[in-house]
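SAMPLE LOG
Freezer: B-3
Tube label: C17
Construct: single chain, 126 aa
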Amino acid sequence: QVQLVESGGGLVQAGGSLRLSCAASGRTFSIYTMGWFRQAPGKEREFVAAIAWSGGNTYYANSVKGRFTISRDNAKNTVYLQINSLKPEDTAVYYCAADTPPYSGGYYATGNYDYWGQGTQVTVSS
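STRUCTURE (predicted):
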């Protein structure tokens, strides 16, 4: 069983920045593929970013490329999402997720992940 706890959300003005964190339980965090998704009111949960277990490969939704950066610190069992140049349309609940072995082979769909956090709210004011 893997537990994920997100933090770092909040209310920020457009153009501002936030860093979201997701702390994971488990001794084998270093082999999990980790992802970030978000869900705005009335919309489906959508892919934001993912990072392979090695940290060498990262993947982003087109809407966030150049503004969001995913990273991980395996020594701290934590994955981060640095969010810059925030826009009102980035307002959503942000979730982290873990894909554990055997891997799904994908990064972009909610079904690729086995475990989810409870989410952290990001609200961007214009």
